[in-house]
Amino acid sequence: MTLLNAAQVFDAPDLKEEIVEIPEWPNPDGTPGQLRLREMDAATTALMTAAMSGRADDGVSIILIFTAVDTENNLIFTMEDLVRLRKKNFRVLDRLQRICLRLNGMGPEAKVALKKD
């Protein structure tokens, strides 16, 4: 057995991502919009957990704030966008939240998967 060294751990591309098509949010040319959702790293997960404190009702939007990224892996939303996200279609936000939860191994689906393992 060969053990990993620190450089191998730090260099391992271990964050999953998914491009999600959102027909409800079309591009200017009318084609369905797309968002890139990325699994959170440990630091981002800690920030999201702190942001959720006392705001459980905003969870559907907060997880999106911490997982939607651009092509450079920069977050596209900030906590300042929370009020505006609250005004978006709940079904769309709920669908995105489910994907974010799955990518991050959180939520009911993750608990079922753990029980199977």
- Biggest sheet strand line-up: 1-2-3
Q: CATH homologous superfamily?
A: Phage tail assembly chaperone gp13-like
Biggest sheet, in brief?
Answer: 3 strands, antiparallel
Shape: globular
Strand-residue fraction? 5-15%
Uncertain regions: pLDDT < 50 for 5+ in a row?
Answer: none
* CATH fold-level name: rbstp2171
Q: What's the Cα radius of gyration?
A: 16 Å
Average pLDDT for all residues: 92
Q: What is the share of helical residues?
A: 40-55%
The domain tally reads 1
Total E-strand runs: 3
How many helix segments? Answer: 6
Q: What is the correct CATH architecture?
A: 2-Layer Sandwich
Distance N to C terminus: 24 Å
Reading off the top of the CATH hierarchy, the class is best stated as Alpha Beta
Q: Structural class of the secondary structure composition?
A: alpha+beta
The H/E string reads HEEHHEHHH
What's this entry about, in short?
With 117 residues, the chain is α+β, with helices and mostly antiparallel strands.
Layout of strands and helices, then pairs:
Blueprint: H1 6-11, E1 17-22, E2 33-38, H2 42-52, H3 59-65, E3 68-69, H4 82-85, H5 90-103, H6 107-116
